[in-house]
C-alpha cells in the first residue's frame, strides 16, 4: 500500500526563509519491509519518476529510518508513542473528507498489507510494475506544478486538472 499526502510530506520548498541548497521538492519515503536502509526500490523509482515530471525543479529525498521488519511489537510501541502527540496537530473538527484532494491511496489487488484478506505476496512487490509508482508521481507532480509532465500530460500543458 502506498499512501501519499502532498503536504507536508511532499511539498514545494518555501522560497522565503529556505536556506540555499534546499531542493524545490522533498520526497519523504519509508522503504519496504526487509529492504536495506535508504529509499528502497519503490522509493528510488518514485523519486526518479518525480524528477522526470518536474523538469527545472530540484527533487531531493529523505529515507525514513525505521526497522522495516515484521517485528510489530517494536513498531507498535513507536506507533503508540506517536499517537500520543497526534491530537496536538489534528484539527478539532473535520466535516466530510477535507484531505481527499491532497492524498492518494494505492493498494495493489490482493496485497496482504493493505487489503483485508489479501494473500498475494507478489502483489505487495508489484507497485513499480503495475503502474502505481507512475500514478503516484503524476499525482504529486500535479500538486506541485499543475503544468507538470505526466502520463496523461506528456508535454506539460495547462489542460491537466490538479483535482
From TrEMBL:
Q: Which domain of life is it from?
A: Bacteria
Q: What SUPFAM superfamilies does the record point to?
A: alpha/beta-Hydrolases
Q: Where is this region: Disordered?
A: 144-163
Q: Which SMART domains match?
A: Cutinase
What GO terms are given for molecular function? carboxylic ester hydrolase activity
What Pfam families does the database record attribute to this sequence? Answer: Cutinase (PF01083)
Entry similarity comment: Belongs to the cutinase family.
Q: What is this protein called?
A: Cutinase family protein
Provenance organism = Mycolicibacterium diernhoferi
Amino acid at each position: 500500500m502506498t499512501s501519499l499526502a502532498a503536504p507536508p510530506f511532499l511539498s514545494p520548498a518555501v522560497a522565503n526563509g529556505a536556506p540555499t541548497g534546499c531542493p524545490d521538492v522533498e520526497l519523504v519515503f519509508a522503504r519496504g519491509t526487509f529492504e536495506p536502509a535508504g529509499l528502497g526500490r519503490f522509493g528510488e523509482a518514485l523519486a526518479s519518476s518525480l524528477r522526470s515530471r518536474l523538469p527545472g525543479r530540484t527533487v531531493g529525498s529523505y529515507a525514513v529510518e525505521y526497522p522495516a521488519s515484521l517485528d510489530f511489537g517494536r513498531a507498535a510501541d513507536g506507533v503508540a508513542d506517536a499517537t500520543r502527540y497526534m491530537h496536538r496537530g489534528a484539527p478539532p473538527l473535520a466535516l466530510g473528507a477535507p484531505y481527499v484532494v491532497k492524498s492518494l491511496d494505492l493498494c495493489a489487488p490482493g496485497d496482504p498489507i493493505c487489503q483485508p484478506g489479501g494473500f498475494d505476496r507478489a502483489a505487495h512487490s508489484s507497485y513499480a510494475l503495475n503502474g502505481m509508482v507512475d500514478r503516484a508521481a503524476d499525482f504529486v507532480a500535479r500538486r506541485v506544478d499543475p503544468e507538470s509532465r505526466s502520463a496523461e500530460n506528456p508535454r506539460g500543458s495547462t489542460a491537466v486538472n490538479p483535482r
